[in-house]
């Protein structure tokens, strides 16, 4: 394995489909890419932005799976339960938007860092 990598390529797939690994492996790969974008003496895995991004993804995913708001909305016979279900759905969508925004920022930042690292490597 190349320096800095903690997992083999097969984990790229397994990390997204194996239930327990889904919580840890994708963030490990992003941490490894983040570290690889820095010169060797400055390499450090992890960053507060990456932690915030991954926590937002996990919270948004769990808010969607835990909530039965869609089913509650279908079964609502009065306005009060319908309103409560819609609030839950809107809250879940808000969490999804936060996770999506942070995902865009992480991808943008990581892409720029990796391009700069590639340019540094090409000049050596």
UniProtKB/TrEMBL annotation:
One Pfam family recorded for the sequence: DUF4328
Keywords: Membrane, Transmembrane, Transmembrane helix
Stored InterPro entries: DUF4328
Entry keyword Transmembrane helix: yes
Segments crossing the lipid bilayer: 12-30, 50-67, 88-110
Presence of the UniProt keyword Transmembrane helix in the record: yes
Coiled coil residues, start to end: none
DUF4328 domain mapped to chain residues: 4-110
Signal peptide positions on this chain: none
Protein name according to UniProt: DUF4328 domain-containing protein
Species for this entry: Streptomyces cupreus
């Amino acid at each position: 394995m190349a320096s800095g990598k903690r997992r083999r390529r097969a984990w790229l797939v397994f990390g997204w489909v194996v239930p327990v690994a889904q919580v840890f492996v994708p963030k490990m790969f992003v941490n490894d890419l983040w570290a690889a974008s820095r010169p060797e003496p400055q390499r450090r895995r992890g960053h507060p932005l990456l932690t915030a991004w991954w926590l937002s993804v996990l919270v948004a995913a769990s808010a969607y799976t835990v909530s039965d708001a869609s089913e509650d909305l279908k079964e609502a016979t009065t306005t009060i339960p319908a309103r409560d279900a819609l609030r839950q759905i809107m809250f879940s969508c808000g969490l999804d938007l936060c996770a999506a925004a942070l995902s865009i920022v992480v991808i943008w930042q990581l892409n720029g860092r990796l391009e700069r690292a590639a340019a540094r490597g090409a000049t050596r």
